[in-house]
Design brief:
By secondary structure, the protein is an alpha+beta fold. About 45% of the residues lie in helices and about 15% in strands.
């Protein structure tokens, strides 16, 4: 209880930050509450939602295609078990859960998944259920010791009477508490905490979080551009050597006509007071800020490098547009994702072992992400042919070019590759090896 009491204030602070980032992602940004002291009637509030663009790009780039489990090593007897595991994950709609999880990762830097066994009598193709949890009301508590093991996973539940209950798990028990008394304390046989925390990066930051001020500046400039156009259309009039009665001034907009009369040597005149914003310079500023935002977050810029001409090859276009900067950012998330995914699989394997007798180990499986597999297809296949002719084995070459998630399975299903297989080596009488 004392551990949970200490963790809840930290969670509440994090939850407030996550709520702000979620609203920002949905378009509720500070520009919508701006006020103008001068000509407050012209106050356009334009949201150019690059936060949504950034999240959509990275979540789609990381998990636009679902991650899959493939055989690790050359033990072909494992393949059938892994195929069953993939079928179970498909039946539980894990790809859509992964996509939802990726969205949370790139909005607020963390995401949560829960896995529980099917309830008695409701078991379907898979004996377990998975769910993507809302980070605004989900948290885990980790040990400060070696390994940073998760000791508690909990969710906040708001009841109809506005009271808050914390429901969660330890390694051995399920509990419900209001931080004063424990109303439920039941043992479970899951073998661990069934709530798993995924991280987008080591700093646990959302994709657009480092550039919040830049995004606010872009909104401000774009809003001021529209204000400038509107103020030019609704320009102020200045009267020289003339005065209008209050009624005339009140009906000036309605009539569209002003009648002035000169007095003596003073000639009455009217002029329009207007100054138009330089749109070309403003556009250059906006474009510069957008480019800076994409560079900082590691997002490719589709307008960068377009002046390189048609002679550039695909690799140079990738470098121009920033794809070479994007890949390391996503690789960081991928590595952290795999670390937590292994803990998730460990729990799943325990459920499968007890209910289906399906015995799998973490060392049997590799987690693969399908991303940009067919890019430079001609170059990759030509490189594969060169490697095969140089004497490298089909398994090594297939894994090197990166076209398939399961190189071993591809080689097994490609009998024509057998001619490139390395023959067994034998020792001759002189002690040398011959092929």
């Amino acid at each position: 209880m004392s551990v949970l009491q200490k963790a809840v204030p930290v969670h509440n602070s994090n939850s407030a930050d996550i709520r702000y980032l979620w609203r920002y992602y949905k378009g509720d940004q500070p520009i919508l509450s701006r006020e103008k002291e001068i000509r407050p009637e012209i106050n356009n509030k334009i949201v150019e939602n690059h936060a949504s663009e950034i999240v959509a790009f990275f979540s789609g780039y990381l998990l636009g295609e679902p991650c899959s489990y493939v055989r690790r090593g050359d033990d072909s007897s494992i393949s059938e078990k892994i195929d069953k595991l993939n079928d179970m994950m498909f039946s539980e709609d894990k790809p859509s859960c992964d996509k939802e999880l990726a969205t949370w990762l790139y909005v607020c830097g963390v995401g949560y998944r829960m896995c529980l066994p099917d309830k008695g009598g409701t078991e379907d193709e898979a004996p377990f259920e998975i769910e993507t949890c809302d980070p605004r009301n989900t948290f885990v508590v980790k040990s400060t010791g070696f390994g940073k093991k998760v000791v508690i996973g909990a969710q906040t539940i708001l009841r109809p009477d506005n009271s808050i209950v914390y429901c969660g798990y330890t390694d051995t028990h399920y509990f419900e508490t209001n931080l004063t008394t424990v109303s439920v304390w039941q043992p479970h046989l899951l073998g661990g905490v069934p709530i798993f925390e995924y991280e987008a990066n080591t700093a646990r930051m959302g994709a657009f979080e480092p550039v919040l001020t830049m995004l606010d500046a872009i909104n401000t400039v774009q809003s001021n551009r529209i204000d400038g156009v509107e103020q030019f259309v609704q320009s102020l009039m200045v009267l020289y050597n003339a005065d209008l009665a209050d009624d005339d001034a009140a009906h000036m907009r309605e009539y569209g006509l002003i009648k002035l009369k000169s007095s003596g040597d003073l000639k009455a005149d009217i002029k329009i007071l207007s100054e138009q914003l330089n749109q070309s310079e403003t556009e250059t500023l906006v474009r510069s800020m957008v480019d800076t935002v994409k560079t900082i977050v590691g997002m490719p810029n589709n307008t960068s490098g377009l002046g390189g001409g048609s002679s550039g090859n695909v690799g140079s276009v990738i470098a121009w547009q920033g794809w070479d900067l994007c890949e390391p950012r996503v690789n960081e998330t991928e590595l952290l994702f795999k670390r937590t995914e292994k803990q998730f699989l460990k729990l799943v394997f325990g459920i499968l072992r007890r209910t289906r007798g399906l015995d799998l180990k973490l060392s049997d499986i590799d987690i693969k992400f399908s991303r940009r597999n067919i890019e430079n297809l001609l170059v990759k296949t030509q490189g594969a042919l060169n490697l095969l002719q140089a004497g490298y084995g089909p398994e090594v070459v297939t894994a090197t070019i990166g076209l398939w998630n399961d190189p071993m399975n591809v080689v097994a299903q490609s009998p024509n590759l057998s001619k490139w297989a390395l023959p067994a080596q034998e020792n001759n009488e002189g002690g040398g090896a011959i092929a």
